[in-house]
UniProtKB/TrEMBL annotation:
Lineage: Bacteria, Bacillati, Actinomycetota, Actinomycetes, Micromonosporales
Entry superkingdom: Bacteria
Organism: Paractinoplanes lichenicola
Gene3D superfamilies listed in its UniProt record: alpha/beta hydrolase
Pfam families assigned to the protein according to its UniProt record, in alphabetical order: Abhydrolase_1
Domain AB hydrolase-1: 20-120
Designated name of the protein: Alpha/beta hydrolase
Length: 251
């Protein structure tokens, strides 16, 4: 598939061919691999859709000044091409930022919205601390730091959340700029879809104080905080969260 400007977009579908659409949006500098081990839980009930953001996975081309709005419009194009109007959308981390603009800019395409471990961006957001930023800037320790920020000490599994290793430095920096420049504060009241805001209480990457900001700003939104969860809580505690998500998505 190609975006309207010709940029190639790699799209993946699984599950029920004629089922209701569930679009899953991954985090910053990650491809659809982010959802490995998670999408399968929905495949018996949904047509599960993912796509690789520009600069990740199979979506490669000239690097531009991408934004979360760019990625949101790409997501809208994917949904339209697949005939997925009124889709359920679950965005995590930067994917939650993309989902905010998708729901606000293209309300006819989003039937239900889940925003997980994300923030509104801009001056109203609660940003990670300088200490966390310093730790993330240490390239030699980055893998260990990400593991500590995403998962609790009890976690022993394999993660697909630590970035697309095929990205160039230029592509990674373009994603970082897009995420850092995100500001959906004025757009949030335009969201019409029923919205669930999820966050782990111990998230230091995107502090949980952002969850009530989103929940109050989006009309009718509800919020669920997972005690002790870090930035990857939706992966580590996916079985615990399944009843919450299933109840919301299937209502």
């Amino acid at each position: 598939m190609h975006a309207p400007d010709g940029f190639p977009l790699a799209v993946q579908t699984s599950g029920l061919e004629d089922g209701p659409v569930l679009l899953l949006l991954s985090g910053q500098a990650n491809s659809h691999e982010w959802w490995t081990g998670l999408r399968e839980a929905y495949e018996s009930r949904f047509r599960v859709v993912t796509f690789d953001y520009r600069g990740t996975g199979g979506s490669r081309g000239p690097v531009g000044e991408w934004s979360t709005e760019t990625f949101a419009d790409d997501a809208a194009h994917v949904l339209r091409e697949l005939g997925g109007g009124g889709a359920a959308v679950h965005g995590t981390s930067m994917g939650g930022r993309v989902a905010q603009h998708l729901a606000a800019r293209h309300p006819e395409l989003v039937g239900r919205l889940v925003l997980t471990c994300t923030s509104p961006g801009g001056p109203h957001a609660v940003e990670r601390s300088p200490a966390v930023r310093k730790r993330l800037a240490d390239d030699e320790q980055r893998g260990r730091v990400l593991r500590e920020l995403f998962y609790t000490d009890a976690w022993t599994g394999e993660s697909h959340l630590f970035g697309d290793p095929t990205m160039t430095v230029e592509e990674s920096r373009a994603h970082l700029r897009a995420s850092n420049r995100h500001d959906a504060w004025e757009a949030l009241p335009l969201i019409q879809a029923p919205t669930l805001v999820l966050h782990g209480t111990d998230d230091l990457m995107v502090p949980s104080a952002n969850a009530p900001l989103l929940a109050r700003r989006i009309p009718g939104a509800t919020m669920h905080l997972y005690e002790g969860g870090r930035h990857g809580f939706f992966d580590e505690f996916s079985e615990d969260l399944a009843p919450v998500l299933d109840s919301f998505l299937e209502t």
